[in-house]
Amino acid sequence: MSGADSLLAVEGLTKHFPVRGGLLNRQIATVHAVDDVSFALAKGETLGIVGESGCGKSTTARLLMRLIEPDEGRVTVGGATVGDGLSVRALRRRMQMVFQDSYASLNPRLTVEDTIAFGPKVQGAGYDAARTKARDLLAKVGLDPNLFVRRYPHELSGGQRQRINIARALALDPEILILDEAVSALDKSVEAQVLNLLLDLKAQLGLTYIFISHDLNVVQYVSDRVMVMYLGQIVEIGPVESIYGRARHPYTRALFSAMPSMDPDKRTMQAPLAGDPPNPIDPPAGCRFRTRCAFAESICEGPPPPLADAGSAHHFVACHMAREGSGHSRVGG
Fold it and tell me: What is the CATH number of domain 3-109+171-275?
């Protein structure tokens, strides 16, 4: 998908955090949190982002929302570039975020009604209009306005609080919703209810989702496309059927082999992936996955592999084994 055809286009997004130390508090190292991440998102699509903890998923989300300022890169929403034609204030009218911790995300001193109505008031809506909007959104997320408008966050269950967070995110009528582990803290029965709510809201309101999660089964259920990240970089991206049916990157295969299954023939007899990811302060040269890859060869220590066509429509992978003429002995394997 080209950036010109997309609702959201991200090009070369990069964020490095300095590590300071010593008597003079000088910079002594750099954390490579997100490195040259580029992708596009079509209107009405759900993009799932997966990877181990520390791979850059949440940092990418915060960079998109400008909660963190990127070092490099460009974010374009509907053809307007953030910082050049699109202000951060205008960006946040078009894109909102739901966080993992439903309790920490809410002001304990505000009622449910005031929480949801706050955004519209800041954007210039009158008190009555903002209050009406809050009640309408409560009904949309499955909570009775007459029962919940005067309640405070401590009086709600985890599932109810997350519904309030979803309602608050929708209060500015955004086009894009970023869901950062939005259901991971909920028990399974409540998780299923919230997931179905999100799918219903997407259909009703024409929303576009970026869905970040550790749960590969949930990502498969809600996503149209999947992006796999490792140590701050994209290693594979493509349609959900293609990624889950024919993953090409060894890291993606290792993630999927760790998925729990009720099928006794699919038991995992040994750990699919050994060790922790390398330190992002000093990532390996070349392919960053090579230090944990069973198929690593000398070619993997050279220039890092670019995202290349994986042989099916819109499926791309950053691996020398998937790139003809790379010099890897297992090309096409």
Answer: 3.40.50.300
Residue by residue, DSSP assigns 13-33 as: EEEEEEEEETTTTEEEEEEEE
- The domain limits of the chain are 3-109+171-275
pTM metric for this prediction: 0.91
Q: For residue 214, give the nearest of 45, 58, 333, 17 by alpha carbon.
A: 58
Distances (CA, A) of 293 to 152, 231, 258, 283, 321: 49, 14, 15, 14, 12
Walk across the sheet containing 8-21 and list its strands. Answer: 26-41, 8-21, 72-77, 80-82, 85-86
pLDDT tens per residue, range 153-183: 999 998 999 999 999 999 999 999 999 998 8
Hey, what amino acid is at 6? S
Kind and range of the H or E run holding 7: none
